[in-house]
Design a protein that fits this description.
396 residues, alpha/beta, Rossmann fold, 2 domains, eight-stranded mixed beta sheet, binds cytidine-5'-monophosphate
């Protein structure tokens, strides 16, 4: 996974850290990237387009409505040309525009027009970084799988000290080199289940499991970035559906089972990431159950095990399961691998409050027949790429 020979579109927005942009271009070029630069109007106040043209070896663009630039390489061509879109520095204002999908200049338009992954390196005053509006924008962008590099802490141009400095050019170039997935899943169809299921008791009540769906959605996005055609079968979540991923929304385990079984025969890889309810009420009453002075006893019946049913098909796809455990992680994961006839299992210790259910981070122990590896704590998007890299190696 490297930016060697890849097309990096560098967007520069108007912050004082923009003066480091020519150095960043040099670092990217040194790693073998083809770099094209787009500046916002306010970035032009901080850095010279001529310098950027000289170090990138390509013409720079700064205007959506420039007829000469559009005739040479129009904004849609530029958006398609990019393998990755890096915005460094990214100001608080630009992050807000990105969050709301504005397209009132060349760079914000490119962000909407490109299918390439977007990576941003924020740079701003520490108070602006901590402002709740900025933090809410950061959360929304993370949910949309925009990768956020930094910011670093330290002394700022305005004299403040704190979080908000742009990462150094060499660190950005290095992290970008790691972030770009290679297309190892090109031509493969991957199905992923994600989120919880809801099992109705009556029209207003259900039982469910803790699950935000973040890991499954991160896997869907990562598989798509690695070249796969992706089908995501999702239980109810608050997440934004990843771009270019076919998503089927379901509620109950039975609906999820049916959706999976209808399409799985055409898939090369199946990843069971959903927290499927093991049991459902034996009966769903058509009217709301009214409370009275008596105890209430419900009877539950077993739900189908979707992952196990897929793995036991006559011609199963490569199957990857998850195991959320609170103790004996290795032992339980290995027994699940064998019992469900899986090709691989990724286990996490949900008793560690820093990772798991609703957090942005996770850590995984991955087992397959004859091998195992530990993926250290990282954000779920990074972990998804690492896990799919392992899948692609074992799949071969
Ligand atoms: O047996 P256990 O629920 O611990 O196994 C977890 C794995 O099995 C996860 O990959 C989960 O998505 C999958 N699973 C399933 N259908 C069920 C229960 C679990 O696909 N009914």
């Amino acid at each position: 996974m490297s930016i060697n020979n890849k097309n990096v579109l560098l967007g520069i927005t108007g912050g004082i850290a923009a003066y480091k942009a020519p150095d960043l271009v040099r670092k990217l070029v040194a790693l073998g990237a083809n770099v094209r630069v787009v500046l916002t109007q306010s970035a032009l106040e901080f850095v010279s387009p001529l310098a950027l043209q000289a170090v990138s070896g390509n013409p720079v663009s700064d205007n959506l409505l420039d007829k000469d630039a559009e005739a040479a390489m129009g904004h849609i061509e530029l958006a398609r040309w990019a393998d990755i879109l890096l915005i460094a520095p990214a100001t608080a204002n630009f992050m807000a525009k990105l969050t709301h999908g504005l397209a009132d200049d060349l760079l914000s338009t490119l962000c909407l027009a490109t299918a390439a992954p977007i990576v941003i390196a924020p740079a701003m005053n520490q108070q602006m970084w901590h402002a709740s509006a900025t933090q809410q924008n950061v959360n929304v962008l993370r949910q949309r799988h925009v990768r956020i590099l930094g910011p670093a802490a330290g002394e700022q141009a305005c004299g403040d000290v704190g979080l908000g400095r742009m990462l150094e050019p060499q660190d950005i170039a290095h992290l970008l080199n790691e972030a770009l997935p290679s297309k190892v899943l090109l031509g493969k169809k991957v199905m992923i289940t994600a989120g919880p299921t809801q099992e109705a008791i009556d029209p207003v009540r259900y039982i469910s499991n803790h699950s935000s769906g973040k890991m499954g959605y991160a896997l869907a996005k990562a598989a798509q970035a690695m070249g796969a055609e992706v089908v995501l079968v999702s239980g109810p979540t608050n997440l934004v559906v990843p771009q270019a991923v076919t998503t089927v929304q379901v509620k109950s385990a039975e609906q999820m089972h049916q959706s999976v079984m209808e399409q799985v025969a055409t898939c090369d890889i199946f990843i069971g990431c959903a927290a499927v309810a093991d049991y459902r009420p034996a009966q769903t009453t058509p009217q709301k159950i009214k409370k009275n002075d008596q105890e209430l006893t419900l009877t539950f019946v077993k739900n189908p095990d979707i992952l196990s049913d897929v793995a036991h098909l006559q011609h199963p796809p490569f199957t990857l399961g998850f195991a959320a455990e609170t103790q004996n992680v290795r032992e339980y994961a290995l027994s699940k691998l064998a019992r469900k006839k899986l090709n691989m299992i990724a286990a996490n210790d949900v008793s560690d409050s820093r990772i798991g259910f609703n957090s942005e981070q996770n850590a995984l122990s991955v087992f397959w027949p004859g091998g195992e590896v530990t993926l250290a704590m990282a954000d779920k998007q990074k972990l998804a790429l690492q896990l799919l890299q392992l899948v692609s190696e074992q799949f071969k």
